[in-house]
Structure formats: C-alpha cells, structure tokens
Amino acid sequence: MKPVILAEKPSQAKAYADAFSVRKYEGFLEINPCPIFPEGAYITWGVGHLVELKEPHAYNPAWKRWTLGSLPILPDRYEFQVAKGKFKQFQIVKKLIRGTDTVINACDNDISP
C-alpha cells in the first residue's frame, strides 16, 4: 500500500512534492516510485480545518440563543461535522486514508517555542 502524506495546506504539500517526481490530480499528488517510497506515495492536504465541532444548537435547540447564565454549554458527547465548503477535499483525504495502512502527519504542530 502506498503511504499517504497529509499536509496542512496546498502550498505545504507542493513544497514537499518539489523533492520528488509527481503526478498531479485534483486534491492530491502522487509520488512516483523512488528510493524513499519504492511503491510511490500520495500527498494530500487540508484547507484549514476540514472538520469542526458542531454548533451548540445542533445538540440542543435551546442553545441557539444562549446567555451567560446557560454557560458552560457541555454536550454529553461532542460531535464533528465537515466544515462548510470543504466537503470535496474531505472526501479526497478520507478515500486516500482509507486505502492505506500508513499515514504520515506532515502538518504544522502548532506548538510555539
């Protein structure tokens, strides 16, 4: 199985891909077989956050118009949804990840020094 490299954004994926011979597709790049990836690999990306927490009113309609007195809003179980406008890229990432047994997280770590 070809590994999937997940970058945070398209420009980051392109920077990684510049080190390899690749074929371009919509939403991902395919690394041609090489010494580092003998079977090849895929590089794909998020476009910001692909998923997000559901809004409070999705859990309880009474939370649509909340006040300070209704805080904290703590659902029994947190649920996620695909972020608006990102469904197509989410589906591409999902398909690639489901088709592999190796995912390389090449996103920013968001840790400040």
UniProtKB/TrEMBL annotation:
Ranges for domain Toprim: 2-113
InterPro entries: Topo_IA_core_domain (IPR023405), TOPRIM_dom (IPR006171), TOPRIM_TopoIII (IPR034144)
Signal peptide annotation: none
Coiled-coil positions: none
SMART domains cross-referenced by the UniProt entry: TOPRIM (SM00493)
A Pfam family that the UniProt record links to this protein: Toprim
Domain of life: Bacteria
Name of protein: Toprim domain-containing protein
